Amino acid sequence: MPPFVYSPHLSRWRSLDRDRLEPGFLRYWSNSREFTVQLRGMAASTDMAPYLSLRDQRRLAITLPPIAQQRAIAGVLGALDDKIEQNRRTARALERLARAIFRAWFVDFEPVKAKAEGATAFPSMPQPVFDALPTRFVDSRIGLVPEGWGAGAIKDLATLSKTQVKPQESPQEVFDHLSIPAFDAGMRPAVEAGSAIKSNKFLVVEGCVLLSKLNPRIARVSLPSISRGRRQIASTEFLVFVPRQTPDRHYLYCQFQQTAFHEELTQGASGTSNSHQRVRPDDVLNRPVIVPPVPTREAFAGIVDPLFALAAANHDESAKLAEMRDYLSPKLLSGQVRVKDAEQAVERSD
What we know:
This protein is α+β, with helices and mostly antiparallel strands.
């Protein structure tokens, strides 16, 4: 590994003899029941959090299967993690491409500038849309915009849904719950029973875009996936935006992802400290944005919707693979499931 530094609150573990302890096995063992049971028994309370001393860490006992079995277990679980990471990278690349197209069309106005300079086409833009573009800019309340394009607000593109759910009234129901911690951990909802969710939540409406009003300097923007049979809910720290026109969903998402958009929201946020600032919903609805003609927005949707669909498919596959990994891991580590059986299960998932 290259040189690195880490917090004094962390411990670095490494195998001193790889013929006795496979590092990959150690990694997955640290999430095992054998480890967590010992952890709960040893952790001492401090003013800040449970604390495990270095002395106690050295006292931890680990059950070691034969090294060949350790490597096989690490290989199976590692293959799942590698595929999950590959899917995440692919999804991020697809979203970056969509956002780059948004920026080119609606922030830098590259197609309009190209046409003004004599170009007869623009890469990625359908020819009829390019032919309808203006060749000059006019002043507006948000600065120079292409002639004929509107200077409106978010409320011209979306409404705000405020439908709430009380999960505690359905204690046996299982929800897809997008909380701020769940978003920060992987931008995916946690699967939780209503009995475990103590406060009211917003109902996630199909086709919506979620934007966090907490600490707007952090770009917490989510495109909820299609429900897998469970009701989807979100923390009331999120705002649920429903596009007025279906093709505008990804236009809104890309707009919310713009750095300048979050900087403007941050300037208008209120709160007692930098870590607890909130933006007012009406401030977001009234935030000035450019509103291109409907055919231009529809053309944008026609290009980026498939990119986001592929990204969503990658995220969904990763979620299923993570469920399989979490199911297999304790069984492999305890010896309940043989590596060969686990490999066959992974192959079937492919």
